[in-house]
UniProtKB/TrEMBL annotation:
The keyword ATP-binding applies. This is Chaperone protein HtpG. Keywords: ATP-binding, Chaperone, Cytoplasm, Nucleotide-binding, Stress response. It comes from Ramlibacter alkalitolerans. It comes from the Bacteria. The gene is htpG. Belongs to the heat shock protein 90 family.
Length: 635
C-alpha cells in the first residue's frame, strides 16, 4: 500500500529552486549522491563497532553506480546503514538540520542571489532533481528484516509516496529517471570521469560495470561498447588525506575541499600534514575563500571532521579548533583516540587538546604565509590579494582570538589589518603603523566607531589630523572588545583616542602646552558653572587640547567602557554599566567662548553636551528637549 506525504514547506522551496535554476555544472549531483552513499557506509561501520552483526553477510562496504540506457535510469547503490520507512519519510521529506532550515528561510526568490547562496550550501540528496524528473529510493536499514524495506518515489514537486517492500540486501539505492536533457549521463566514460573528478578521494570502492568491446555481428555493422557482468573499481578508494602529499595534485585538494564543504569556490589555502610525536594524527585543513552566511553564529557547526584510523567518527568536531577558527574546514584523522570516543570525551581528552593546539598553529601558519605573500614582489597579483580577501571575509572572526587564545595573541596581533586616517583600504598592519610612527610618538592610536565615515569625521581626531599622526579606525563590532585584550603591540601601547586625556607627550611642543594651561586657568570659572549645569549627564567637564574645529567632545575615563560599546551591548539586549562620560571642551572655540556671561548659559551647556553625543554616534537622552533648545536659540 502506498502512502502519500507532502514535503515540508522548506523542502518544496528548495526543490523548486533546484529544478528551476540551479547549477551551471549539473554534474555535481553525482558527487552529492556518492557522498551520501559513502556517509551511509561510514555510519554502518561506526554502529558495527559495537554491533558487528549489522554487517550481515556483506562485510565489504561499497558503492555501485550503474545505468540502464533503455529505461533511461542511473542508479547509485550502497550497502551502508540504509533507512527504515520512518527514516526515509523524515530524512527525505523534511530538513532536519536547523542550519539548513535557516538557510532556506533566507532564500529571497531572486534566482541569481539564491543560486549564489545555495552554492555555499549544497543541496545534498535533492540535487538529484537537477537531472531527474523522478527519483526512486529503495532502502532497508541494517538490522531490520528484509520485509521491512521501503520504496520512496517522488517527482520533486509537492509530494512523495512511500510503500513497504521486501529487500534482501541492506542499504540504499537511489534511481534517477533522467530528464531528456540529461541523457548524456548514460555513459560509462562520462560517469567515470565525473567520479574521478569529484569522488576519487572517497575511501570506499566505487564500482561500475566493466565495458567490453563487441565486434559487429553482421558484416558491415560497426562494433560497440557493451556492459559486461563484471564490476570494476573506478576510484582510488583511499582516503585522500592518508595519501602521500606529493601524490596529490592541487586539483585533487580543491575537489576534496569542495566535496567536504559543499563550497563551489576554490579554497584560499590548505595545509596537509602528518604529525608525529606523543600524539599522532593527520590534519588536512582548508581556509575557504568566502564566509558562510551564518559565520556570526558562534554556535555554528565547526568545519572539521574527525576520523580515527580512517573510520569516520563525527562531523563538526568543535573540540578540534577554537571557536574563532570556526571557518576552517577539513579532516583530522587520529591514530590514538578510541573509536568509541564521544563529544563529551573529546572535550576532556589530552590528545584532543594537543590536536587542537596543533591545528591552531597550523592555521595561523597558513595565514602568516598568505600575509607574507602580500608583500612578495615575485608573487602574482592573485596571490598577493589572497590575504586581503581572507581578511575581508574572516578578519572580524579572527579578532575574537585576541580574547580567546592568549597563547597565540602575539601571532594574532600581527595578522590584524585596519583602515586608518592614512589608508582607506583595510590594509594597515600594526607593524606598518609602527614603522610610520612620528618621532616622539609613544602610542598606537585608534578610534572606534560604527562606520569608517563616522570614525573619520570624529572630533576626537582633530588634533591627530593637525599633527599628521595616524589613527587606526576600528569599525567592526568586535573591535572594542578584542582591543581590550590587546594593550600593546611589540612594546608600544595601544591607546583609544576617545579614552582618558590626550597626552601626545613629546609630540606637543612647550608653547602649545603653555597656551593650553593658560586657557584652562582662565576658563576655570566657566568650567565650574558647566559642571554644575551638566552634573546629571557628565561625570566631569574639562578643557582639552585634542579639539581643533569642534567645540566639545565626549570621552570616557581610561579603563572605562566606551560609549559605543555600551550602546552596542544595549542594542544586543545586554546589561551595560551606566558610566557617565566626560565632556571635554575646546576653550578656544567661539561657541564655548560665548558661554561666559550668556543669559542662555544653561541651554547652551546642554546643547554642547548633546551635540558632542550626536557627533560621537549617540542620541540625546531627550531629543525633543534638544531640538527645542536649538530652535529657541535660532529664532
Ligand atoms: N544513501 C543513503 N543512505 C542512508 N541514508 C541516506 C542516504 N542518502 C541520504 N540519506 C539520509 O537522508 C538525509 C538527507 O540527505 P541530504 O543529502 O539531503 O543531507 P545531508 O547528507 O544530511 O546533508 P549534506 O548533504 O549537507 O551533508 C541524510 O542525512 C541521511 O540521513
Amino acid at each position: 500500500m502506498t502512502q502519500k506525504h507532502s514535503f515540508q514547506a522548506e523542502v518544496a522551496q528548495l526543490l523548486h529552486l533546484v529544478t528551476h535554476s540551479l547549477y551551471s555544472n549539473k554534474e555535481i549531483f553525482l558527487r552529492e549522491l556518492v557522498s551520501n552513499a559513502s556517509d551511509a557506509c561510514d555510519k554502518l561501520r561506526f554502529e558495527a563497532l559495537n554491533h558487528p552483526e549489522l554487517y550481515e553477510d556483506a562485510p565489504t562496504l561499497e558503492v555501485r553506480v550503474s545505468f540502464d540506457k533503455e529505461a533511461r535510469t542511473l542508479t547509485i547503490a550502497d550497502n551502508g546503514i540504509g533507512m527504515s520507512q520512518q527514516e526515509a519519510i523524515d530524512n527525505l521529506g523534511t530538513i532536519a538540520k536547523s542550519g539548513t532550515r535557516e538557510f532556506v528561510s533566507r532564500l529571497s526568490g531572486d534566482q541569481k542571489a539564491d543560486t549564489q547562496l545555495i552554492g555555499q550550501f549544497g543541496v545534498g540528496f535533492y540535487s538529484g532533481f537537477i537531472v531527474a524528473d523522478r527519483i526512486t529510493v529503495e532502502s532497508r536499514r541494517a538490522g531490520l528484516p528484509p520485509e521491512e524495506g521501503v520504496r520512496w518515489v517522488s517527482a520533486g514537486a509537492g509530494d512523495f509516496e512511500v510503500e513497504t517492500i521486501t529487500r534482501p540486501q541492506r542499504g540504499t539505492s537511489v534511481t534517477l529517471h533522467l530528464r531528456d536533457d540529461a541523457l548524456d549521463y548514460l555513459s560509462t566514460w562520462r560517469l567515470k570521469s565525473i567520479i574521478g573528478k569529484y569522488s576519487d578521494h572517497i575511501s570506499l570502492p566505487i564500482l561500475m560495470r566493466k565495458e567490453e568491446w563487441k565486434e559487429g555481428e553482421e558484416e558491415g555493422k560497426a562494433g560497440e561498447h557493451v556492459l559486461s557482468d563484471e564490476w570494476e573499481t573506478v576510484n582510488q578508494a583511499t582516503a585522500l588525506w592518508s595519501r602521500n602529499k606529493k601524490d596529490i595534485t592541487p586539483e585533487q585538494y580543491r575537489e576534496f575541499y569542495k566535496a567536504i564543504s559543499h563550497d563551489y569556490e576554490d579554497p584560499l589555502a590548505w595545509s596537509h600534514n602528518r604529525v608525529e610525536g606523543s600524539t599522532e594524527y593527520t590534519q588536512l585543513l582548508f581556509v575557504p575563500s568566502r564566509a558562510p552566511f551564518d559565520l556570526w553564529n558562534r554556535e555554528k557547526a565547526a568545519g572539521v571532521k574527525l576520523y580515527v584510523k580512517r573510520v569516520f567518527i563525527m562531523d563538526e568536531a568543535e573540540a578540534l579548533l577554537p571557536a574563532y577558527l570556526r571557518f576552517v574546514k577539513g579532516v583530522v584523522d587520529s591514530a590514538d583516540l578510541p573509536l568509541n570516543v564521544s563529544r563529551e570525551l573529546l572535550q576532556e581528552s589530552r590528545d584532543v587538546k594537543a590536536i587542537r593546539e596543533g591545528n591552531t598553529r597550523r592555521v595561523l601558519q597558513m595565514l602568516e604565509d598568505l600575509a607574507k605573500t602580500e608583500k612578495d614582489e615575485a608573487a602574482s597579483d592573485e596571490d598577493k590579494g589572497r590575504y586581503a580577501k581572507f581578511w575581508s571575509e574572516f578578519g572580524a572572526v579572527l579578532k575574537e582570538g585576541l580574547g580567546e587564545d592568549f597563547a597565540n595573541r602575539d601571532r594574532l596581533a600581527k595578522l590584524l589589518r585596519f583602515a586608518s586616517t592614512q589608508s582607506d583600504g583595510v590594509s594597515v598592519s600594526l607593524a606598518d603603523y609602527k614603522a610610520r610612527m612620528k618621532e616622539g610618538q609613544e602610542a598606537i592610536y585608534y578610534i572606534a566607531a560604527d562606520t569608517q565615515a563616522a570614525a573619520a569625521s570624529s572630533p576626537q581626531l582633530e588634533i591627530f589630523r593637525k599633527k599628521g599622526i595616524e589613527v587606526l579606525y576600528m569599525t567592526d563590532r568586535v573591535d572594542e572588545w578584542a582591543m581590550s585584550y590587546l594593550t600593546e603591540f611589540d612594546g608600544t601601547p595601544l591607546q583609544s583616542v576617545a579614552k582618558g586625556q590626550v597626552d601626545l607627550g613629546k609630540l606637543q611642543d612647550e608653547a602649545e602646552k603653555k597656551a593650553a594651561e593658560e586657557a584652562a586657568e582662565s576658563f576655570k570659572p566657566v568650567l565650574a558653572k558647566l559642571k554644575e549645569a551638566l552634573k546629571d549627564k557628565a561625570q566631569d567637564v574639562r578643557v582639552t587640547t585634542r579639539l581643533v574645529d569642534s567645540p566639545a567632545c565626549l570621552v570616557v575615563n581610561e579603563g572605562g567602557m566606551s560609549l559605543q560599546l555600551a550602546r552596542l551591548l544595549k542594542q544586543a539586549g545586554q546589561k551595560a554599566p551606566e558610566t557617565k562620560p566626560v565632556l571635554e571642551v575646546n576653550a578656544a572655540h567661539p561657541l564655548v567662548r560665548k558661554l561666559e556671561g550668556s543669559p542662555n548659559f544653561n541651554d547652551l551647556a546642554h546643547i554642547l553636551f548633546d551635540q558632542a553625543l550626536l557627533a560621537e554616534g549617540g542620541l540625546p537622552e531627550d531629543p525633543a528637549a534638544y531640538v527645542k533648545r536649538v530652535n529657541a536659540l535660532l529664532s
